[in-house]
Design brief:
With 559 residues, the chain is of the alpha/beta class. It has 23 helices and 20 strands.
Length: 559
Amino acid sequence: MMMKAGLAAAKALRAAGVKDIFGLMGSSVLELYDSLYDFKDIRYVGVRHENCGMHMADAYARIAGRPSLFIAGQAGPGAANMVLGLAQAKLACSPVVALTGMPSTEHLGRDGFQEIDQSTLFIPVTKRVLTVPRSDRIPEMLLEAFRIADSGRRGPVLVQVPRDMFNDRIDVEVPDSIATRHHEGGIPAAAVQQAARLLQTAQKPVIVAGAGIKWGQGRAHLLRLAEQLQIPIIASSGHSDVAPTSHPMFYGQAGARGNPVTNAMLLDADLILAMGTRLGFSTTFFKYQFLSPNARIIQVDIDPVAVGRHFPVALGVVGDAGELCQGLAEVMPAPATIPWQARNQRFRQEREQLLQQREQAGMSADTPLHHQVVYKELRDAAPPDTIFTLDTGSACGQASDQLRYTETPSLVTSLDWAACGVSYAFGLGAKVARPDRCVVSLSGDGAFGMTVGEMSTAIQCGIGTIAVVLDNGAWGSEFAYQRDYYEDRFIGAHCHSPRFDEVAKLYGADGYYVTERGQLADAVSQAVKTGNPTVIHVKVTLDDVRGLRTDAVKHRAMV
């Protein structure tokens, strides 16, 4: 069928299941935009910066559990602005498809207007870079990008199209729909039996569950296994939503951003079931600081490179972690006695004591507010199914183990990429993916200032995210390093921010200013009722900040 290439591209996006598009308008893809005008079943969310748009698409994919799309409408600078967001998506295994233009074919290789070697630029930060060679292959390569992004270990795929190709008339057939995700193959029965034998000889097993459980929708199988065999669940860093916070077998997050109970359990364990986790840096620091060196490890991951990469394993399985949980539950019925029951009770008591201490600390009336007060009021006031997005840094890093999660997924963080200024954009993307759920984005004042322009996106597109900005007047982690290791020799650690609640009102959003205990809970409750885009500016103390990367500064402190 003859049609404009821009129309064929729009039909391909519909066939890939695209319901929402994040983008920043540009002249490189005008024919596609003109075709999308008639596609009323696809929502367009226009952003103010390509990097922020990529973060929105990343969070959308993580929350929706399916590929998302971002369009950088301008070649060269517009495309280059996506690099940080693509790198974030790659580390998060997030299936984002990014579409961008290139200079016209007759200008390629001439160092012309807005020309850069985009392919080389994007190779390190994507799963694949696809360059369309002919206009009649635009729909084919777009569909291929969605398939690649959603297969195996998911990740971002870039499609770049010379700008003149969208104007061509082409003879193509575009399918009505395609399946992007395919079954990867089951867990071998022999692997299940071997894992069962290791479990039968264990005295102190624990499960470390990560993103693989969430991506594979394996929470039900994970909980069944944990309940049936009474094995404690610990979340890998950044994935505290892998199980309900209130579940009796869930103990919290591991690593430097975790809590002392989970880390003590891991040091005490004799068998670690690493389910859908790389046992990466933020969870382990790549050493036995948070893991018992004597524990045998069963590691299951969809990515063969991840299995046994950082720690030797007694059993490595390439596949879906949820399927192994299901297989183990089927071959290992609940025993009459649990050898590790006394261990569980001891750590459960410690867990309850920790939660009580947090609740007590959250009652402090000191001003500026302590972080524990913020966490408690968010636990109390945010609806149970709230999605939280967190920025990097001291206050937000500590929050991931402190908040309450009931559904999976409910948490989006920067993970080991640790990019600053991501949370607000994450929150906008998450809210577009799940408009029925409350979304709360937690940022420091410095981080929020990086993306404040996206309040315009929230207002223009009616995205009712609640942004909570913790203002301590500093880059918290760096302040903590200079305080603790460099004798208070502060340089560059402080930052000045305006009243972001007032800025929000100028944009047309709701704004609240919080200085005392109880005001944050009230503001969150009111924001939930109105459903409007909201910014809550909270004055917090600098006393609570701490640097988590002691490995990065210890040697310098000795100089």
